[in-house]
Amino acid sequence: MTPAAERARRWVRPAVLLLILWGISVVPGTPLVALALLVQLALLPRPRTGPALFVAIAAALLVFSGPGDGLWFVVRGWGLVLGLSFVAVTLYRPAAPFISRALGALVAAVAIVALLFQWGPPDWQVVDWLVGSRIRQVGATALEGVRLLAGERTATPTLLGALSRMIEWQVSVYPGILLVSSLCALAVAWWVYVRVAQGSDRALGPLRDFRFSDQWVWIVVAGFALVLLGASEGWSRAGASTLVFMAALYVARGAAVVVFLTGGVSWAGVALALVGLALLPQVLVGGTFMVGLSDTWLDIRGRARAVLNG
User: Strand, helix or coil at 301?
Assistant: First the structure.
């Protein structure tokens, strides 16, 4: 691969993550990126002050834009806790890989928010209603769009019913979806920070090298335990949200293994993956998840390297 092509790919990584963020986020995703970036520019070293100041002003404008309703404050509050947690972990473990620091920040942010809901002024039921209402509002708009595009004959009650159930599923497990989108937001913000403050586009490594601590498999076990043994609906919902987040992590890890074994990302591979998602999404996603989960014990990439070097 030529140096120019490699540089182009390093720009593609944050772009793809931003598209994923916009596609899956149950709350406005851009403020999460802007807040995380603003906190990093304010509290982390920035050798290139001029560009950093310009980007900080743009990020601040994005943070303070919007209608200023209840959800506006919820999103900014979560984004601030998330950004501060990431900076704290980064200052504590500056040499750790990004994914380790980001996951540590998510754990810290969830713990802080849980304590605030337990002993602070925020009311979980109000926040839950605000986020759930937005998901249902966006879902209703999407359903109406399906009716208009497909027509009354094609948009059968079965299809509309399936979409409605998907919307209610999102309402149930949106904390897990929010964690996935928050991880994407941290990645995009970190890439922009390193690019602006240090002039480097190497903040995010290639997909083929993506991995995280094998000990996170115990979070999957805990999620299943909460779903199966939860003493209340709230605990079962927490377990389901945990499983959604961990499933996304292991799907990404499985995709990294596949990319490593096939020699890298290609346009043909991307096209094949899109076709698979369109025709057999459960099979493709489930299979990729199992590859990622099995990599916890098998270390597939390590074994492949040993075979190639042996």
Answer: helix
Quote the tokens at residue 180: 């996935």
Q: Which two tokens stand for residue 164?
A: 């409605």
Instruction: Give the pair of three-digit tokens for residue 177.
Output: 């979806």
Answer left, alpha or beta for residue 66, where phi above 0 means left and psi between -120 and 50 means alpha.
left
Q: What is the pTM of this model?
A: 0.93
H helix runs in 93-232, sequence order: 98-119, 124-154, 157-198, 217-229
Please write the tens of the pLDDT for every residue from 126-185.
Answer: 999 999 999 999 999 888 887 777 665 665 777 778 888 999 999 999 999 999 999 999
Cα(184)–Cα(179) distance, rounded to whole angstroms?
Answer: 9
Determine the 3-state secondary structure of 232 from DSSP: coil
Structure confidence at residue 144 (pLDDT): 84
Rg (CA), the chain: 20
Contact criterion met (CB below 8 Å) for 124 and 77: no
Burial of 206 (0-12, 13-18, 19+ CB in 10 A): middle
Are residues 14 and 181 in contact, defined by beta-carbon separation less than 8 angstroms? no
Label residue 263 left, alpha or beta by phi (over 0 means left) and psi (-120 to 50 means alpha): left
Q: Distance between CA atoms of 158 and 146, rounded to whole angstroms?
A: 13
What is the H or E stretch that residue 205 is in?
none
Domain ranges of the chain: 1-205, 207-310
- Per residue in 107-117, is it b (16+ CB within 10 Å) or e — as a string? ebbbebbeeee
Instruction: Read off the amino acid at residue 149.
Output: L
Residue among 139, 36, 157 at smallest CA distance from 87: 36
